[in-house]
Amino acid sequence: MTVEPRLRELSDRYYRRLAEVLERCGLPRSMPPFLVLGVLAATTSIVLAVVHLASHRHPSDGPIAIAPAAAGRSGSSVVNSERAQVLSVTMVTRNRWAAGWSDCTSGPNCRYAAVIDRDGSRAVAPEWPVPYATLQAGKEAIAVAPPLEGTLTGAATMMFRLTYDGPVLTRLRYRLPTSTFEEDEILTDRIVPGSIVVVNPQESSVRLLKTRGTRSPLCDDSGRCWVLTGIGRTDMLWTDDGGRSWDSRSLDSHNQLGRLAVSPDGRTLLTTAVAVGANGQTVSKMELSTDRGANWTTVQDPPATLSASPLAFDDGTALLLGGRAGDRPRLYRVRDGAAKLDRGYPGDLADLAGDSDLMYGFEVPKRRTTEVVLSTDQGATWTKFAPR
Predict the structure, then answer these.
(1) pTM (2 decimals)?
(2) pLDDT in tens, 193-243
């Protein structure tokens, strides 16, 4: 079909209706077809312009991408300060990570920034008055700058990420609190103190999660998610349907300091109950399950204290960082129902995260924390680097 018959067909089908609509608006039916289309195009342009201006007048109504250089002072001065320290780190792979930094010696107030590495390319987030939270979003690491007031009803929450096109700083849109979440969303307790929030990187939004859980959210590869809760006690809750229904089990009936580790496949669980006394926090009971919590056994000879949450692995074992009170933390392996001293780490490791393929933590020297160590062989060998 040639162009002229197509135009005639479009005119026969749609022009008559369009002319009737415009006639109701006061435009004569005798107006030529191309002039009608021109009026329609102009009207559409005006509407789009109004929507565009409205979205800029109300930035909280939707996500806004901001060039990092235009968002405030560069965070490079924080990261490169002589007294800079690493506060947080999240590693997805050896070459994809995010690290939060602080500088508390340059003035009366502390300053914070974050660094992201994506396959060898690095970018520094703008300076922020409160610490960045580093999170894993699928196969990348991101940094989130929490609101200053510690609540999602006040100032902005910003998300910093590094794409193949360069760094992007986005203002997260606040959504109403919800009791459910989707599989590709992130649960974290590091943005609003004492609450779990849901971060959706795809739509650039953040919202409170309305549930009994208040801390330590964990999700495995099957989609099951756990949270901890309790006042004066610790209970663990889990859901298989994004928060629509929950099951629960008591972890510690006397303290709210219990800890939970979950393997990537969700079958290995390690819980720790804590006793608080004159010597501080000590491990009172440790239990292990290798069948998703159906059956539990008490772990024999656990370390007296823990320095970080344990790691659970798909093979039914776990790794702990702890030891006697006052001593340098050491690595312990939970295997065959008991915790035994592992190869250890030849330094001062004060944190532990990751999985059997990639474990990492802070290297803590005598004065300040500037380096991270990682292992890809479950602690047999370690590599050290400064994440900046």
Answers:
(1) 0.80
(2) 999 999 999 999 999 999 999 999 999 999 999 999 998 899 999 999 999
Domain 211-388, CATH homologous superfamily name and number: YVTN repeat-like/Quinoprotein amine dehydrogenase (2.130.10.10)
Helix axes 16-24, 33-57, angle to 10 degrees: 60
Question: What are the residues whose beta carbons fall under 8 Å from the beta carbon of 223, sequence distance 6 or more?
Answer: 183, 240, 242
Domain definitions of the chain by residue range? 3-56, 58-195, 211-388
Report the alpha-carbon distance of residue 166 to residue 162 in Å, rounded.
6
Using alpha carbons, list the distances in angstroms from residue 263 to 28, 291, 314, 335. Answer: 72, 11, 5, 14
The answer for residues whose C-beta is within 8 angstroms of residue 294's C-beta and 6 or more apart is none
And the tokens for 183? 């599989």
Render pLDDT for 300-315 as a digit per residue (tens, 0 to 9).
999 999 888 899 999 9
**From the CA atom positions of the chain, what is the Rg in Å?**
27
**In what side-by-side order are the strands of the sheet with 186-188?**
173-174, 205-208, 197-200, 186-188
Q: CA 371, CA 363: separation in Å to the nearest integer?
A: 5
Residues of the chain with pLDDT under 50: 1-15, 21-22, 24, 27, 29, 34-37, 39-40, 43-44, 46-62
338 and 352 Cβ atoms separated by less than 8 Å: no
The tokens describing 151, both together, are 């609540």
Structural tokens at position 16:
């008559």
Q: Where are the alpha helices (DSSP H) in 267-370?
A: none
User: 232, exposed or middle or buried, with CB in 10 Å at 0-12, 13-18, 19+?
Assistant: exposed
DSSP, collapsed to helix, strand or coil, labels residue 248 as: strand
Please state, as a whole number, how many other Cβ atoms lie within 10 Å of the Cβ of residue 333: 18
